[in-house]
Specification:
The structure holds two protein chains of two kinds. In chain A, α1 runs parallel beside α4 and α5 crosses α10. Chain A contains eleven helices and eleven strands. The radius of gyration of chain A is 41 Å and the shape is rod-shaped. By secondary structure, chain B is an alpha+beta fold. Chain B is built from 20 helices and 39 strands. Chain B has a seven-stranded mixed β-sheet, sandwiched between helices. In chain B, strands 3, 4, 5, 6, 9 and 10 form a six-stranded antiparallel β-sheet that branches. In chain B, strands 12, 14, 15, 22, 23 and 24 form a six-stranded mixed β-sheet that branches. The longest helix of chain B has 19 residues. Classes of the chains: A alpha+beta, B alpha+beta. At the A-B interface, α5, β1, β2, β4 and β5 of A face α7, α10, α12, α13 and β28 of B.
Amino acid sequence: MDLISALESLEPELEKGLAQASSLDELEQLRIEFLGRKGRLAQIMSKLPQLAPEERPAFGQKANVVKEQANARFEKRRDELQAAREAAALAHFDASMPGRRLHTGSLHPDTLVMEEICGIFGRLGFDIAQGPEVEIDHYNFEALNMPPEHPARDMQDTLYITDTILMRTHTSPVQVRTMLARRPPLAVVVPGKVYRRDSDLTHTPMFHQVEGLMVGQNITMAHLRGILTAFVRGVFGPSTEVRFRQSFFPFTEPSAEVDISCFLCGGAGHVAHEPCRVCKGTGWVEILGCGMVDPAVFEAVNYPRDISGFAFGLGVERIAMLKYGIGDLRMFFENDLRFLTQFGY
Amino acid sequence: MLLSLSWLREFTPYDGSAQALGDKLTMLGLELEELKHPFVALEGITTGHVVACSMHPDSDHLHCCQVDVGGEALLDIVCGAPNVAQGQKVAVATVGSRLPDGTVIKKSKLRGQPSHGMICSERELGLSDDHAGIMVLPESTAVGKRLVDVLDLDCEVLDLSITPNRADCLSVLGLARETAMAFHLPLTIPELVPDFACDSEPLPIEIKNPELCWLYSGRVVSGLTVAPSPAKIRYRLMAVGVRAISNLVDVTNYILMECGQPLHAFDLDKLAGRRIVVRAAGEGEQFVTLDGQNRLLNSRDLCICDGEKPVALAGVMGGLDSEITETTSNVFLESAVFQPATIRKTSRRLGLSSEASFRFERGIDQERSVWALDRACAMMASLGQGKVHRQLSVNQPKAFVPVEIAFSPKQADTTLGLALGSDFALEVLRGMGCQVKADQEPWQVTQPSWRPDLTRAADLVEEVGRVYGLDNIPPALPAMEFSLERAGEVPSDFVFWQKIRHWAAGLGLNEAINYSFVGHKDLDLLNLPAEDRISIMNPLTADQNVLRTVLAPGLLQSLRNNLAQGAQSVRLFELAHVFQASQSEETGALETGMLGLLLHGLRHDDVWPYTPESVDYCDLRGFLEHLLRTLHLGPARFEPLGSHPYLLPAVTVFLGDTPLGCLGRLTPAIAREYLAHEPVWLAEVNLDLLKKASEKATVHFAALASFPPVRRDITVIGSESLTVGSILAHIQSMKLPYLEDLVFVSEYVPEGSQERHLSFRLTFRHPSRTLKDGEVDKERNKVAQSLVNALGVRI
């Protein structure tokens, strides 16, 4: 048999072998048998010196073609077998396997609410101001128009350190400190902890407030209403309405309690013919206190007489309770992980 | 303040509903807390006529009555009261109706006789403690009517929350003024003037502390008979939360509620020397008040005395010795005005708040004090069949002088952001009771005597806004004014803390917020020093009597709460201030911001695919190292601390030479106190220092290396006292030029051996060419040799 025929006879045998190879290992055996260093093609090629010199180029060409075709066939078959193997592996892929669990971190709902509030006021142009939690009577009360023995002090049951040093009962002393440190115009919000000597179902001895203060020329109560409307819409949605109710705080005049239209029932007072659980059927939810800065406060910080401004203070827990539907205030400071992990970050 | 709607209607003809009134008052700043119906339990009770009454055939005390309650048939009712008699008009609970105590009346038989209802006593109706017999109604009473209508009970009561500025609204009269103004109604004060039927010398009134007692007046009413007040007065007082006592005492309470003027009735015959002295108490003086308590007084308390001794604690409570008793027949009735602060001081110090002290603290309408006194005298004389003496005993060291306020109506508009105009302001102020001279600006506005809160223009602005309705102010956004004063200032602590909070939450930690106060015993448990703690003077409980000096007790409390709830892995963080006494601070307290971390339990939850391993030092330290890298700080040094009050081991973390905080494991004995049986790892880091350092940290872009790194591992074998840190420090100190990174890779201690095999990976890279294997091997061998020489280790 001449060498060309020998080459040509490899093809059908290879074809058969490829069809029979059922695994990548068998295929590799086959490849070594045909194309390996001592494989059948190599053996045929080793006989090249037996050929006459003029026959050699044609034989060489033929051998190259056979080798290339064989390589291509092997690759094709390898791809097929590989695909089959991958498919077989995936045939039992269990998509229901759980993900590797990562720890779920969380921020306290008070933190989330304070961040949101400060963010909204930040976009409205307010800076953040802060002050000490242990405060002197002067900043907490006197400079805020609550001299000693003023009955308004009853509104805020106080934890004392000494006769003149106390745990701040509100974030309002930071108003005073800010005005003493800065000249008008200014607009600040003050997030922080405050303390009262009060503990029951609806009061904890520590809670959080955000105070707001804006002072400048010609600041009016209409501006106060505008800023607060922008704020509550930011927190509770764009259709939220604001109601001002006359009230009293020693450091603002006029003073108002602010209600918002109930975000659950939309102010209707009922949901599916049942009285609304959020607003107790009134359509309104009390949310914060505010007012125009009392002239006595400006006097205490030596501000010019022609200045005006407004201040407001809101309870962070109250807003968190409304926003997330938390029923029990005391949960805020028990730090039960089942509570903490509900709010994300 | 409890306001009876029918009482109010005696003062102003308001004919709307209680709810509508409450809503209106709420918007005016007098918030309706609750609408009460004090006699709602009596609404099923009807009036009846005892048509026939005979003794029960089988009883010596029961009566069989036939009662007409306006129905078709007479009702058979068996009644056990001794005073029941034919012809009486009575209160009847018919079958199916419910008594205030919840009893439902059923058809029954008493010793064989049918009984279809119950004839009620005052006690059964909850109207008084009287259960001597059934309640007998006037003969003129119509039959078959609702008892509440027949008795004209005060069925609707508004519970109003009165803010401290509105002293004037602590009375029916004051609330009637507001109602009249709000609904444009007249004020119709029912006239009640005494008939002066007697003359006597007025009692001399000596006021030793005129700055504390601005007015003291009184009048004698004599020949009185003590008895229960008429039903109408008793039920009305009951409706507004005042216990009826006797006609003479009830008068003082009635006028107090009606006019807002506290009054005190002394038994004139018990006043020694027939005179009144108002003076400060002596230091340590003792006095027994009406409630039988012996009170220790001091020189800041004001006393009302007779010729010999104190008879009342001014403005707060009367004395036991001079109180009205059943035998009193002559009364000296006091109406006074005291300085508010002194009353408040005494009331607060003694923890004794009364209806009187509450009003004195807030301010009294001094112009109406004597008027109210006379009103009370007239009422007392009428109820007790006594005689009012013409001569007024009075001493007024400080007369009421109304404040004249300069007011320009424009002020209201500029504050409120409205254009109301001067006519509106004028109408409001006059409606409020102010006298206004409006012929030129600024107006001259005279304060009404009953409004101590109106003394400045700002107060009048508020009144204008209040009456217009603050809720009618339209919203507007201000044109914000900004200044360059604060441009470029570093962000607030709040912003920095938020960044740390998000970092911690992002790494899977849960944020806790604990109270700033703990108990001294909590700090003692952690062996923390007793000095420099800040105690709360008036703590609510012993668990909250000191400010925390470290975050640990709060975090541990939270750990305990969670473990008690069955949690296993707890990973908490908290950012808060800790407090240390410091003379150099204005507030006496140094407040330092701290970050606290607490790890407990398993590193991963005990589920696939993790093996259950407890958290350890390296977990906690990993958080701190990650935090510092996040803030572009460090590397930090971690140095063991010789001793720590509650951590063992305890390690201080240094940034440069500054100790930032410490970390370590809570000693097991303390951990057990918090229910923790697995290791508890705690870290506390000073946020103030961290913030300062991070403000200074700068970020510089480093060009990206374009040649490949070459890595070599090196394993060091040494005794068990060999530390990872010493090897890292030694290699770093060699300052090898192309060493880019050096990390600890693994630790291995062969079984039965004490030696540590510590492996490190060195990464070399040249900035401008590819390093050759040979030169890297040379560097590694240099390191190995140096370690052998310097630390005596094997490689």
